[in-house]
Write a structure and sequence with these properties.
Elements: E1 6-10, E2 16-17, H1 20-25, E3 38-42, H2 49-52, E4 86-88, H3 90-100, E5 105-110, H4 122-134, E6 139-143, H5 147-158, E7 162-168, H6 173-181, E8 185-189, H7 193-207, H8 218-224, H9 226-235, E9 241-245, H10 250-262, E10 273-279, H11 284-294, H12 326-335, E11 339-343, H13 348-359, H14 365-379, E12 388-393, H15 401-405, H16 425-437
Helix pairs in contact: 4-5, 4-8, 5-6, 8-10, 9-10, 13-14, 13-16
Bound molecules: pyridoxal-5'-phosphate and zinc ion (ZN).
Residues 119, 121, 145, 147, 215, 245-251, 317, 366-367, 394-395 line the site of pyridoxal-5'-phosphate.
C-alpha cells in the first residue's frame, strides 16, 4: 500500500497524519493538539484533473478516484452516486425575468437522483463505507437527523460494517425502518438532535467505537467537495450564487475546501455567493446572522448564536437547533458576501406542488426549503442580472412519504357524475403560482 497519495493536516497545529489508517488509530484526533479538524492534502499531480473534467458521462464521484483518499479501487462501495445532472429550470428564470426583471441562469443540482438513497448524503456514505472496508473497520456509529443516517445505514451494510445509528425521536419513521431493514441498529433517542449526538458520543466512548466527527469530518468533506469538480465539469466555471438548505453545513464547508484546494491549479475559480436557507421554525443561524448584521459584525460575532431546544419544525432533516458549526459557516458566508435566509415552513407544500406541476418530479421537504430560498433570493434582489445560480436540492420524496401524501389537491370524493367538471390544468398552474409568489 502506497502512503504517498494523500495526508491529513491538522487545521489547528499543522501536524501531519499519514493516512486514514493512522487517523482511525488516533481515534480521529490530532495527537499533538487534540483537534478533531484535519484536512486532506493530495500529493497527486493536479495537471491530470483537467482530463477528468472533460469526461461526458462519469458513473459516480469515484471518477475522481485520484483525488479521493482511498488507495485501492477494489474497496469502492458505490451505488452510482455523485454523478447527477445540473438542470436548468426555465420556469424560474422566466419568473425572475417577468416579475423582477432579472436575467439569470438557474441550475438545479438533482441530488434526488443519487443512486443510493436519493439524497446528497450518498457520496459521503460511499466514501465512508469504502474507507472502512479498506481499513478493516467493522463497527461505526453516527448521529443524524435522517438522511445521513439512511445513507450510512445502507452503504455501511453493503461494506459489511455494523452501524449504531442515533436519531432524534421525531425523525422520519420510514427512515428508521429503512435503516433497520438493512440489519443495522437504530437508536431513537428521547429528545432532539443535540441529545441524539450526545448519546452517540457517549456510546462511542463507552464501547470505544469510531464515530463520525460531524460536519468537519474529513470523510464527509472530501467526498462532498467533488460537487465542485462536477460543477466545473458540467458548467465549465463556478456558479456566481450557491443556494442550499443548511443544517450543519458540510455542504458549504466542502465547497470552500475544494476551492482553496483547486484555485492554485485552475484559473478563474472563486467562492460563489453562499445563500444558506433555514425554515422559520428552526433558524438559529439566521437569527445569529441578523443580530450580527444589525451590529455591523462586531469582533467575535460568530460565537454569538442561540441554541434552540427541541425546535418545533416538521422538517426533521433540518432540525439542528444547536448550530455548533455556525462560527465556521458564518465566516465562510461573510467571505462569500452571502447571506442566511429564513423561509416560511408553511409554504413548503405549495412549492413542492409547484415543482411537481412544472417538472413532474417530487422533491422532499428539505429540498422545498431550499427552493423557497431561491424564490426569496430572486424577490429580494440577492440574485443579479447575468448571474449563474446553482440550487442544491438535497433530497427526493422517497425520504418523506408523508410529505407526498400532503401534495394532493385536485382530489375530490364524488357520489355521482353530477359533481364532476371537466378539468383545466392551466387553472391549477395559475393557482399554484399565485399561492407561491403572488399574482
Ligand atoms: C436534503 C438535505 N438538505 C440540506 C441538508 C443540510 O446539509 P448540510 O450538512 O450541508 O447543512 C441536509 C442534511 O442534513 C439534507 O439531507
Ligand atoms: Zn493539531
Amino acid at each position: 500500500m502506497s502512503n504517498s497519495k494523500y495526508q491529513l493536516r491538522c487545521i489547528s497545529c499543522g501536524h501531519i497524519t499519514d493516512n486514514f489508517s493512522v487517523w482511525f488509530d488516533q481515534n480521529q484526533l490530532c495527537p499533538k493538539c487534540g483537534s478533531k479538524h484535519s484536512e486532506i492534502e493530495y500529493h497527486t499531480d493536479y495537471s491530470s484533473l483537467s482530463e477528468l473534467l472533460k469526461e461526458k458521462n462519469p458513473k459516480s464521484f469515484w471518477h475522481y478516484f485520484d483525488y479521493l483518499p482511498l488507495y485501492n479501487r477494489d474497496n469502492i462501495i458505490s451505488c452510482e452516486e455523485g454523478s447527477i445532472p445540473l438542470e436548468r429550470w426555465l420556469f424560474f428564470e422566466d419568473y425572475a425575468k417577468q416579475h423582477c426583471h432579472i436575467d439569470c441562469n438557474i441550475y438545479i443540482y438533482r441530488n434526488d437522483l443519487n443512486g443510493g438513497t436519493n439524497t446528497f448524503k450518498d457520496i459521503a456514505a460511499s466514501m465512508a463505507a469504502s474507507l472502512f472496508k479498506e481499513n478493516n473497520i467493522n463497527q461505526y456509529c453516527i448521529a443524524s437527523t435522517g438522511n445521513t443516517a439512511t445513507a450510512y445505514g445502507k452503504y455501511l451494510s453493503l461494506a459489511g460494517v455494523n452501524a449504531a445509528i442515533f436519531m432524534p425521536v421525531d425523525s422520519e419513521k420510514t427512515s428508521q425502518s429503512e435503516i433497520a431493514s438493512y440489519g443495522q441498529q437504530v437508536y431513537c433517542v428521547d429528545g432532539d438532535y443535540a441529545r441524539a449526538k450526545q448519546v452517540a458520543a457517549d456510546y462511542a466512548k463507552k464501547f470505544e467505537i469510531l464515530i463520525s466527527s460531524g460536519n468537519i469530518d474529513p470523510i464527509r468533506i472530501e467526498s462532498k467537495r467533488t460537487m465542485v469538480f462536477e460543477w466545473l465539469r458540467m458548467l465549465g466555471k463556478m456558479p456566481d450564487v450557491y443556494i442550499q438548505a443548511i443544517s450543519g453545513g458540510t455542504g458549504p464547508l466542502a465547497i470552500d475546501k475544494a476551492i482553496r484546494e483547486l484555485s492554485p491549479h485552475l484559473s478563474d475559480i472563486h467562492l460563489p455567493k453562499m445563500l444558506m436557507i433555514q425554515t422559520n421554525k428552526c433558524n438559529p443561524m439566521v437569527q445569529a446572522w441578523e443580530k450580527a448584521k444589525a451590529q455591523n459584525f462586531p469582533d467575535g460575532y460568530e460565537k454569538d448564536y442561540p441554541i434552540l431546544d427541541n425546535p418545533q419544525t416538521e422538517i426533521s432533516i433540518l432540525a439542528t437547533g444547536n448550530p455548533a458549526t455556525y462560527p465556521l459557516i458564518a465566516k465562510l458566508v461573510r467571505k462569500s458576501k452571502g447571506n442566511f435566509i429564513s423561509v416560511e415552513e408553511e409554504k413548503t407544500i405549495d412549492v413542492a406542488r409547484l415543482i411537481a406541476y412544472e417538472k413532474k418530479i417530487h422533491i422532499g421537504p428539505a429540498s422545498a426549503v431550499c427552493v423557497l430560498g431561491l424564490i426569496k433570493a430572486i424577490q429580494t434582489g440577492e440574485i443579479k442580472d447575468g448571474q449563474t445560480v446553482l440550487v442544491n436540492i438535497g433530497e427526493g420524496i422517497k425520504r418523506a412519504p408523508n410529505f407526498l401524501q400532503r401534495l394532493g389537491y385536485n382530489i375530490k370524493q364524488v357520489p355521482s357524475i353530477e359533481n364532476c367538471r371537466i378539468p383545466d390544468m392551466n387553472q391549477a398552474k395559475k393557482e399554484l403560482w399565485e399561492g407561491m409568489v403572488g399574482d
